[in-house]
Amino acid sequence: MKGPRVTLEQWRTLQAVIDHGGFAQAAEVLHRSQSSVSYTVARMQEQLGVPLLRIEGRKAALTEAGEVLLRRSRQLVTQASQLEELAHHMEQGWEAEVRLVVDAAYPNAKLIHTLTEFMPKSRGCRVRLREEVLSGVEDVLKDGSADLAISALDITGYLGAELSTVEFIAVAHAQHPLHQLGRKLSVQDLQSQMQVVVRDTGARQPRDSGWLGAEQRWTVGSLATSVAFVSSGLGFAWLPRHMILRELAEGVLVPLPLIQGGIRRPLFYLYTNPDKPLGPATRILIELFRTYDGEQSAVSG
Question: In CATH, which of 3.40.50.450, 3.40.50.2300, 3.30.360.10, 3.40.190.10 is domain 97-165+267-300?
């Protein structure tokens, strides 16, 4: 593949001619002679084999081809500047990427709020987000594939910063047989019904968060699938309240009137990789999680 014949500096020169109204004005802004600017643009046109400018009175105007190429060149010059800026930040210790693994039960609203606030502060740092269930988060953190992890598990050997709780509710479809009993439900009532649980994505020591008393258990691959199954009348489950707000409001899903244990509120933690020094971007993201996790909890509560 041949290298480009036109340099970024030539594109910058053409942009200056158009943006500042002519060769003389561009020369003043670029701190160059007018003849140097004129030669640069003329040379560009020779190299491209396409006329970029036409003279209208005392001003240079773009040709149709020039308008298209200049518009594309602005993206090119901007990206080159961003690349140089990123290299500068990396030289100062700024990370090129932060790898984040989050338990799928953690509310998306909090995640989106935090990452939205992080974007203008990121200086080009990318975020690689991965969702796992239960010990899947632990596995990713321990094998070094994540810089930050959010999990409700107490991960041995790691100190987690407390975030908020996530409320899980035992629910079933409004027409489910459990609701037809018309009374408080006991352990014996649940044992005869099918429970829907989400598969732990961990490979080392997968954990079973489902209630083990049900004779029938269907294991699904995601919380979204679990919500869909239970909303269709297929079994009961403990589901995060934030994921079933609409179904609860519409009366499709109804909380099970358990004697006890109908609501669970596991506390989530923010973990860091102890084998990797925290860079500036990672530190900013940590502080944003602490800030907006709490604020979102106050709003939703």
Answer: 3.40.190.10
Quickly name the fold that domain 168-264 has: D-Maltodextrin-Binding Protein; domain 2 (3.40.190)
* Number of Cβ atoms within 10 Å of the Cβ of 31: 6
- Domains 8-91 and 97-165+267-300 fall in the same CATH topology: no
The three-point CA angle 257-260-266 to 5° equals 105
pLDDT digits (tens, 9 = 90+) for 194-243: 999 999 888 776 666 655 556 688 989 899 999 999 999 999 999 999 99
Instruction: List the alpha helices (DSSP H) in 161-222.
Output: 177-180, 187-191
Tokens read off for 122: 């990121």
Q: Higher pLDDT residue, 214 or 53?
A: 53
What residues does each domain of the chain span? 8-91, 97-165+267-300, 168-264
Neighbours of 271 (CB within 10 A): 22
Question: Exposed/middle/buried for 84, CB within 10 Å: 0-12, 13-18, 19+?
Answer: exposed
- Give the pTM: 0.68
